């Protein structure tokens, strides 16, 4: 029995450059992601992991293939609707996320929510909840310069999760963190995903994340060459 597919990439391909300088970065790649699942993508530097994530997230247009989120064909949408879909449904957590130097942590998180059209008061209250959830309730008023690397990364996670996205894209979210913080990040992502039924797609070289994953996809030269199921995602059996 299979769970609900929330994201599907089919026959995705992408290359850069032209003529003899052309490189094919993602090659005819298929991928399905179930709601509530935590998928790791591993593979050597340059094998196309970030490019794949960018195509799935509606950021980089594939040369071929399709991306479906639910019953929406992402790359068939006009640009404005694709941007809306991203804003409303997707959260992003990247390594060394850039925070605005002049904004306190709670302002950074609230900014995304006001961008989505939430009133400022509500946005700040939600931002405070999200920061409390990542253990930063007492740091919410501080500027990035006053936060440690691990704390900054947790602000970035609060930014990614505050809008309660159904899809979370993470690219090396823990590689700059010590083991304690990396574990905290992994627990936050998995507990959020399980609670909301969101899917997490996480590119990483960090073996510390493996125990938290439902499966690992191994990518090489633009293709998924192996899949390791670690545990079955939580599913509703009828
Ligand atoms: N916009 C671009 N223009 C030209 N080449 C690009 C572009 N984006 C990516 N590439 C190339 O595509 C290849 C794959 O890049 P990608 O960022 O997807 O790799 P990656 O698997 O995420 O690697 P890493 O683990 O180092 O982050 C690299 O050779 C890169 O130089
Ligand atoms: Mg990358």
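Sequence proposed for the structure above (238 residues):
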């Amino acid at each position: 029995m299979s769970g609900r597919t929330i994201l599907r990439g089919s026959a995705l391909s992408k290359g850069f450059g032209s003529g003899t300088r052309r490189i094919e970065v993602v090659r005819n790649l298929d991928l399905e992601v179930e709601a509530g699942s935590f998928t790791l993508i591993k593979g050597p530097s340059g094998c196309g992991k970030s490019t794949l994530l960018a195509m799935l997230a509606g950021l980089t247009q594939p040369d071929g293939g399709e991306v479906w989120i639910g019953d929406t064909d992402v790359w068939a949408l006009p640009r404005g609707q694709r941007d809306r879909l991203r804003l409303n449904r997707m959260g992003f957590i990247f390594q060394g996320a850039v925070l605005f130097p002049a904004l306190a942590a709670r302002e950074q998180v609230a900014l995304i929510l006001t961008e989505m059209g939430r009133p400022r008061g509500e946005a700040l209250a939600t931002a405070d909840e999200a920061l409390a959830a990542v253990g930063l309730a007492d740091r919410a008023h501080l500027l990035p310069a006053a936060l440690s690397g691990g704390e900054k990364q947790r602000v970035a996670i609060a930014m990614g999760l505050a809008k309660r996205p159904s899809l979370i894209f993470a690219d090396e979210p823990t590689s700059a963190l010590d083991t304690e913080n990396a574990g905290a990040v992994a627990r936050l992502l998995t507990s959020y995903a399980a609670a909301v039924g969101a899917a997490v797609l996480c590119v990483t070289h960090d073996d510390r994340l493996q125990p938290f994953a439902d499966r690992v996809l191994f990518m090489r030269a633009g293709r998924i060459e192996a899949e390791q199921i670690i545990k079955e995602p939580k599913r509703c059996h009828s």
